[in-house]
């Protein structure tokens, strides 16, 4: 049994990416999955001046959480075609602590949005950036039109095709991290 750390790159109190992470994490039965909310890892906006003051304890704590995981489940939100400044700031701090903070981490990368592209631009951006820090993207999944395809009442994906696609991605991911 492997340890999976799951989180969304959003700081919204009503984050649909966090909801997607929680839903997907609940579907992983053959491994231990720990879901965290990055809002609980408060860090100042990265700058050289801030770094000279020392690394935030929350950045060191998050780096430790990542290092203890065998794999990661990450859902990135999208702001203007890229991931949000909140997540970028976290990545900046982690990469300054250790350039290879994702070394040997297998990643299931996801995104969602209210729109038909499902945060695809942010997902593609993350697929290009995260391997620079040592991570290996095993699978990726873009979930379009979140509010049309996910029921908050039943906490379920309502579109059968999307559910089948997600189940296939999860199966491949679970197999790859054994």
Automatic annotation (TrEMBL):
Residues 3-140 form the NADPH-dependent FMN reductase-like domain. GO terms for cellular component: cytosol. Gene3D superfamilies: 3.40.50.360. One of its GO terms (molecular function) is oxidoreductase activity. PANTHER family: CHROMATE REDUCTASE, NAD(P)H-DEPENDENT FMN REDUCTASE LOT6. This is NAD(P)H-dependent oxidoreductase. It comes from Aquimarina mytili. The lineage of its organism: Bacteria, Pseudomonadati, Bacteroidota, Flavobacteriia, Flavobacteriales.
């Amino acid at each position: 049994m492997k340890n999976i750390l799951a989180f969304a790159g959003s700081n919204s109190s009503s984050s649909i990416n966090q909801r997607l992470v929680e839903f997907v994490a609940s579907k992983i039965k053959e491994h231990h999955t720990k879901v965290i909310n990055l809002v609980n890892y408060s860090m100042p906006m990265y700058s050289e001046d801030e770094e000279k003051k020392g690394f935030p304890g929350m950045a060191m704590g998050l780096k430790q959480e990542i290092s203890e995981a065998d794999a990661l489940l990450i859902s990135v939100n999208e702001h203007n075609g890229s991931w949000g400044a909140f997540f970028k700031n976290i990545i900046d701090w982690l990469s300054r602590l250790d350039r290879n903070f994702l070394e040997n981490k297998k990643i299931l990368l996801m995104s969602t949005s209210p729109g038909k592209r499902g945060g695809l631009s942010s997902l593609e951006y993350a697929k290009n950036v995260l391997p620079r820090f040592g991570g290996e993207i095993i699978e990726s999944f873009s979930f379009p039109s979140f509010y049309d395809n996910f029921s908050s009442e039943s906490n379920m994906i309502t579109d059968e095709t999307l559910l089948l696609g997600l189940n296939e991605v999860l199966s491949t991911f679970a197999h790859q991290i054994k």
